[in-house]
Amino acid sequence: MKTEVLLSVMDKEDTLHYTDMLNIRTDALIVNQCGVRNTYQTSSRYGKIYVRESDERGLSKSRNEALDNAHSDTVIFSDNDIKYENDAFIKIDSAFAADPEAAVLVFFIERPERKTPVYPGESIMDKIHMMKIFSPEIALRRSLIKDLRLNEEFGAGAKYSMGEENIFLFEAKRRGLKIKYIPEKIATMLPGGSSWFKGYDEDFFFNRGAGYYVMDKKMWYPLAWQFILRKRKLYSSEISMSDAYKSMLEGRREYIRTHEEK
């Protein structure tokens, strides 16, 4: 079993250098949203490299295209701002081989806001810890997730700029899929700014409010308030607690208006 990396980039002329820059020591499928449609194949020192050039926009669209066109049953999402450990793919392949029933395996990537794994040992994930995960930590067994895909209204370049990976994990949980955390470090985030985070402003909380509603309608209020209370030191210099909550409410209401009201 060989896990394939699914890497999404945008408007890049030279996509192949990412295999060295990110230390991808396995097969990879690169989706480059660059305004044209084309496909080609090449190779690196460590495996086959498939490139799909796309005229669409949106990170979730890109990742769904990669999921639909991957060549391996086990895959892992990637970003162009992480660097894999030398033994990352040995760890990933071994973890999948050890648990044939696992549909989703979540690994640890060190980044500024998270220096240690969310669980000290291997564990079935609960919803609270799912909210602490970001996309490149997620590996999938395609034969078990079946038609489960990312919500294309969420993520960079979409209507709501965040939360797609958390919505995905919550939906996987609803479907009864086995989601297992493996506290093995597989990569480190490289220095650089986020493509979507512009600060804790009204838009941030608006998008977060819509995302929490899609994640779990019944748990929206506790999800919203745990974030508002837990993160208040981070946003207090930019927006008040009451205004943050109002923006989250408006995000929820707007999503309901456009999706559920007749």
Write a structural description.
The structure is a single chain. This protein has 262 residues and is an alpha/beta fold. 35% of the residues lie in helices and 22% in strands. It has ten helices and ten strands. Strands 1, 2, 3, 4, 5, 6, 7, 8, 9 and 10 form a ten-stranded mixed sheet that branches. α6 (164-174) runs parallel beside α7, α7 (202-215) packs across α10 (241-259) and α8 runs antiparallel to α10. The model has no long low-confidence stretch (mean pLDDT 94).
Summarize the helices and strands and which ones pair or pack:
Elements: E1 4-10, H1 18-21, E2 28-33, E3 38-43, E4 48-54, H2 59-69, E5 74-78, E6 82-84, H3 88-98, E7 104-110, E8 123-124, H4 127-130, E9 138-141, H5 142-145, H6 164-174, E10 179-189, H7 202-215, H8 220-230, H9 232-235, H10 241-259
Parallel strand pairs: 1-2, 1-5, 2-4, 7-10
Antiparallel strand pairs: 3-4, 5-9, 6-10, 7-9, 8-10
Helix pairs in contact: 6-7, 7-10, 8-10
Task: Write a concise synopsis of the structure shown.
The chain is 35% helix and 22% strand.
Query: How many helical elements?
Result: 10
Corresponding CATH superfamily of the largest domain: Spore Coat Polysaccharide Biosynthesis Protein SpsA, Chain A
The oligomeric status of these chains comes to single chain
- The structural class is alpha/beta
Summed up, the domain count is: 2
What is the strand tally? 10
The share of residues in extended strands comes to 15-25%
Mean pLDDT: 94
Give the CA-based shape.
globular
Rg computed from alpha carbons, rounded to a whole number of angstroms: 18 Å
Largest sheet: 10 strands, mixed
Report the order of strands and helices. EHEEEHEEHEEHEHHEHHHH
Poorly predicted runs of 5 or more residues = none
CATH architecture of the largest domain, please?
Alpha-Beta Complex
- CATH class call of the largest domain: Alpha Beta
